[in-house]
Specification:
246 residues; mainly beta; Jelly Rolls; 2 domains
Length: 246
């Protein structure tokens, strides 16, 4: 298990002027940079690469219609995050953008903060962090999903796993594909968490320990397949779990 603490990570900047997301694709029209904190990532250039970051947008940013060769998961931490001209994921909402699925165009407003996870899907490994606009898209593989999937976690029911422990099953794509779920451990309670596949965990709220290590809001964790860790809560601890495709 690896733990990274949000409060201890410095913000870094990403973005370049000639990104295909620029309104006209021209390099002479600089785009605002995205500020990120990298919570977890795999080894660059190796199969199974993944990345989990918190992103924030100090200025509004335009995006053309495009797709990626990776699965993407976005949880809105603050603001309203558009993904189509008339669609946006509000605070507390999740957006799953499957690999090769087009979305956009949209303008992301200033002030939005997101948890963003991307991971290799299928045979597209290792992946590159470049998006593809429709006009440059050749040899496109079959698309599994025609549109992104928006989820509203508050509308999903909790199921009781043990006294003081609740679980929400949100989404699973195939047997060992991308999986989304949540777990809540009440004050003073404990739970033995077993990862069925490589799993990322993000602390949505509360504080406690996982695998003997202290965690707090917005911290990020990585668990290997079949890893068992003890989760205990000092202040009701709620985790978002992202199972990475095998």
């Amino acid at each position: 298990m690896r733990v990274t603490r949000y409060a201890e990570i410095e913000w870094s900047r990403r973005g370049k002027a000639d990104s295909v997301g620029a309104p006209d694709g021209a390099s002479n029209r600089p785009r605002p940079a995205t500020e990120v904190k990298v919570l977890q990532r795999g080894e660059p250039g190796r199969q199974g690469y993944f990345e989990m970051v918190v992103s924030r947008y100090p200025e509004h940013k335009d995006y053309k219609r495009h797709r990626h060769i990776v699965d993407q998961i976005r949880y809105t931490l603050a603001g309203s995050s558009p993904w189509e001209p008339d669609r946006a994921t509000e605070e507390g909402g999740l957006l799953y953008v499957p690999a090769h699925t087009y979305y956009g165009p949209y303008v992301r407003p200033a002030g939005v903060e997101l948890l963003a996870v991307q991971c290799a899907a299928g045979n597209d490994q290792p992946f590159e962090e470049e998006s593809v606009p429709p006009e440059l898209d050749t040899g496109r593989p079959p698309t599994r999903f025609t549109v992104p999937i928006e989820l509203l976690p508050d509308a999903f029911p909790w199921r009781v796993a043990a006294p003081g422990v609740r679980i929400k099953d949100l989404l699973r794509v195939a047997a060992q594909g991308t999986a989304l779920s949540m777990i809540s451990v009440a004050d003073g309670k404990r739970h033995q968490l077993v990862s069925g596949q490589r799993t990322l965990a993000f602390v949505l709220r509360g504080a406690g320990t996982v695998g003997g290590q202290a965690v707090a809001e917005r911290d990020g964790l990585y668990l290997d397949p079949a890893e068992e860790v003890d989760v205990s809560s000092d202040l009701e601890l709620e985790l978002l779990l992202i199972g990475l495709p095998t």
